Amino acid sequence: LIGAGGSKFFSPIYMYFIGLTPIVAIVVALFTQSFGFASGSFSYYKQGKIDFVLSKKYLSIAIPLSVFGSIISHYFSMELIETIFGIVLILNSFLILYYNSILNFFSKKEKWNNRVEYIVLILGSLFLGFISVGLGELIIPTLLLKYKYPTQKAVGTSVFIVFVSTFVSVIAHIIVMQIMGMPFFVSENIAVFIWMIPGAITGAQFGARISAKVSTKKLKLILTVAFILLGSLILFRKWIF
């Protein structure tokens, strides 16, 4: 609906309700998210809302960096990954809440320069592989401001870029986990897939269909509150208990 990944919701659920470790929860969330973004990409493709030329340009940078982020995440402590994830959730909530103000601020500038564009792409790609979030939320403003895309085309292009990057990141994670003696396709993870993947696919189709019809003001407020609560819960549990 807004081009943001569902892994922000999946990861905390997997960590605190299913009991997966932070890194496994993030990888399982990416795996689940990839199905949702694949479904959304297909829907936006049918609507003609994906710029494949720009996607190819972005993916040439996003793929190697998201893979790099995926690999290095396995060499950081679980506490650090969990803390970074909580902080990013809270920061993301303010990005959503003040999204229009941010767009208005930058729209007054003479140009959305290439340096900012590539910094955003690099950071988003690294964060995607490292903690499963960030790429879609960071590149949509660039598509809106620099390329002047209509909202649906910006979201559709973003969804496709995130889908491909997520899919490749998952493969990188699985290979590293296998090398480190942590098989990914174990019964516990498979049980999660069976329950969550159908919902991710259905939700992506539904979101793509209503994105042009529904005002997102209330949705943004709900997401802002949800991400602040989730991020605060993660940090509170990690540093208080």
Give a structural overview.
The protein is an all-alpha fold and 241 residues long. It has one domain (7-239). Helix content is 80%, strand content 0%. It has helices at residues 7-18, 22-46, 52-73, 78-97, 99-107, 114-131, 135-145, 151-179, 187-210, 217-239. Helix 1 runs antiparallel to helix 2, helix 3 runs parallel beside helix 8 and helix 4 (78-97) packs antiparallel against helix 10. It is globular. The N and C termini lie far apart (36 Å).
What about the largest sheet?
none
Q: How many strands appear in the DSSP assignment?
A: 0
The parts where pLDDT drops under 50 for at least 5 residues are none
Bin the strand percentage.
Answer: under 5%
- Estimate the global geometry from the Cα principal axes: globular
The value of Rg in angstroms is 17 Å
- Count up the helices: 10
Q: Which structural class do the helices and strands define?
A: mainly alpha
As a percent range, the share of helical residues equals over 70%
First and last CA, distance: 36 Å
The ordered string of helix (H) and strand (E) elements is HHHHHHHHHH
In short:
This protein has 241 residues and is mainly alpha-helical. The chain has one domain (7-239). The protein has helices at residues 7-18, 22-46, 52-73, 78-97, 99-107, 114-131, 135-145, 151-179, 187-210, 217-239.
What's the SSE blueprint?
Blueprint: H1 7-18, H2 22-46, H3 52-73, H4 78-97, H5 99-107, H6 114-131, H7 135-145, H8 151-179, H9 187-210, H10 217-239
